């Protein structure tokens, strides 16, 4: 796994963050060092997906990047569930295809290169996952995107969303950012790396408040949602397209 050094050298002009070749090369290291409790979030997603994935249905990972989640889910989810990964970066998808091949994935699966800003076609889905992806979709298109996801999901389907979120209070927001940067420093990032990446993301990553994400889900076709993970400004939400209280496989 290549080490993330994208912002180690001082840049006179910091360009907007992209998910191209250079990012794809170091993305796995970037995730583990930049997302607090990344391994635990993935483990929790595995638990949720295993309980809601239904034989003969599709499981989507929208913004699948290098395919980590599919490799995690493969031994947990019934082999009769088809995996569909969607990402706008050909370089990320190339990594994902290599990874699932090395993993020895035998189930039916497909990778699609598509820009989620232009929508997505979801069909026969029991589980849809978006991990730190919606925040990169232009706000103008988010409601349409989530609505199309909900409309393509089966009854009792489960939507798993992980996002950065903004607190209502500006003082708490400043504190949460400070704590997050302290976390990144503990992972070996320098102050300059952190500052330059923040500048690169400034016009690209647009987070919502937790309440705004919840409202977005409930107004787009999901009947209920709840928080399953929260660490300062990182949050995991699970939304259900059902009014039943039990997951699909509950006894």
Task: Describe the SSE topology.
Layout: H1 21-34, H2 38-52, E1 58-62, H3 68-73, E2 82-87, H4 90-103, E3 109-113, E4 125-131, H5 139-151, E5 153-166, H6 170-186, H7 191-201, E6 208-209, H8 210-218, E7 224-231, E8 234-241
Parallel strand pairs: 1-2, 1-4, 2-3, 4-5, 5-6
Antiparallel strand pairs: 5-8, 7-8
Provide a brief overview of the structure.
This protein has 251 residues and is of the alpha/beta class. The protein has helices at residues 21-34, 38-52, 68-73, 90-103, 139-151, 170-186, 191-201, 210-218, and strands spanning 58-62, 82-87, 109-113, 125-131, 153-166, 208-209, 224-231, 234-241.
Give an overview of the whole structure.
The longest helix has 17 residues, at 170-186. By secondary structure, this protein is of the alpha/beta class. Strands 1, 2, 3, 4, 5, 6, 7 and 8 form an eight-stranded mixed sheet that branches. The chain has helices at residues 21-34, 38-52, 68-73, 90-103, 139-151, 170-186, 191-201, 210-218, and strands spanning 58-62, 82-87, 109-113, 125-131, 153-166, 208-209, 224-231, 234-241. The protein has a single domain (21-241), classed as Rossmann fold, CATH 3.40.50. The chain has eight helices and eight strands. The chain is globular and about 50 Å long.
């Amino acid at each position: 796994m290549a080490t993330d050094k994208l912002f180690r050298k001082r840049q006179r002009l910091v360009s907007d963050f992209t998910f191209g070749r250079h990012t794809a090369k170091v993305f796995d290291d970037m995730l583990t060092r930049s997302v607090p409790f990344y391994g635990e979030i993935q483990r929790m997603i595995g638990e949720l997906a295993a309980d809601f994935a239904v034989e003969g249905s599709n499981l989507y990972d929208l913004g699948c990047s290098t395919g980590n989640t599919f490799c995690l889910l493969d031994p947990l989810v019934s082999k009769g569930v088809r995996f569909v990964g969607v990402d706008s970066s050909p370089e990320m998808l190339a990594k994902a295809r290599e990874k699932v091949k090395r993993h020895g994935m035998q189930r039916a699966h497909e990778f699609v290169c598509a820009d989620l800003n232009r929508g997505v076609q979801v069909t026969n889905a029991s589980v849809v996952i978006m991990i730190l992806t919606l925040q990169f979709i232009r706000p103008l298109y988010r409601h349409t995107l989530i609505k199309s996801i909900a409309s393509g999901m089966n009854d009792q389907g489960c939507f798993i969303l992980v996002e950065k979120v903004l607190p209502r209070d500006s003082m708490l927001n400043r504190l949460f950012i400070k704590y997050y940067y302290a976390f990144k420093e503990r992972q070996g990032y320098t102050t300059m790396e952190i500052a330059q990446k923040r500048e690169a993301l400034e016009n690209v990553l647009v987070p919502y408040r937790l309440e705004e994400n919840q409202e977005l889900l409930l107004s787009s076709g999901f009947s209920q949602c709840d928080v399953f993970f929260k660490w300062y400004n990182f949050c995991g939400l699970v939304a259900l397209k059902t009014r039943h209280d039990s997951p699909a496989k509950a006894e």
